[in-house]
Amino acid sequence: MLENWIDPVAIAIVFAGTVAATLLRCGVADMRVTLAALRGTFEPAFDVAKAKAELSKQIREIADDGFFRAAPHHFGDVEFDSITDIMIGQRSIESIHGAHRRYKQQRLDKAQRAARTFESAAELAPVLGLAGTLFALGQAPGATPQGESLVDAVAIAVVTTLYGLLAANFLFAPIAAAIARRSRQEERDRDAVLEWLAEGVRKAGSAAPVENAPQVAA
């Protein structure tokens, strides 16, 4: 019974056709961004606890030595490594917000492009399913006395339509939503960590040695 619902030709028409049509609609650049975003959904999410634990070392060093002698503390996060470089280099808390906004906009742009690409695929999959249906019916040789050839062609046509609907609603659309949902959560978490860092550095700057404290931007 299960083999009646598995047709390699229908799968190729729907999935390969959808990928090709999406590539033509969205372009190579967006497809690359989309593949990177898809890989990212299988990677660990931004770890708020780890980020705070690592950044707390930077805050302690600023509290102990002030901005003059504190060295940037890196822990492998591209944005926060860059932010600490800027913060220590410019001896300013406020400078980190501009850098954060640039990184945030870049991430949001990539997430939106990836989500749009999968949404386009979700729109195109049913169309390719219909195309597969028409292709299967067009290949029907006509009814035999038993009607078997026509019945087989109709069965393939129905399966192809089903593949298009399933691909759109249970694969491409959910992936688009997952990418958008993960992006929103990451930005909320990063915003929270940035505010926590800024507040911690302000307090650390106030507790720093007197000769270093005037360099801290309030």
Automatic annotation (TrEMBL):
Main location: membrane
InterPro entries reported for this sequence: MotA-like, MotA_ExbB_proton_chnl
Listed transmembrane segments: 6-24, 121-141, 153-180
Coiled-coil ranges from the UniProt annotation: none
Keywords, in A-Z order: Cell membrane, Membrane, Protein transport, Transmembrane, Transmembrane helix, Transport
Source domain of life: Bacteria
Domain MotA/TolQ/ExbB proton channel: 88-190
Topology of this chain in the membrane: Multi-pass membrane protein
Places the protein is found: Cell membrane; Membrane
Pfam family, one: MotA_ExbB
PANTHER family: CHEMOTAXIS PROTEIN MOTA
Family stated for the protein in its record: Belongs to the exbB/tolQ family.
The protein, known as: MotA/TolQ/ExbB proton channel family protein
Organism listed in the record: Qipengyuania benthica
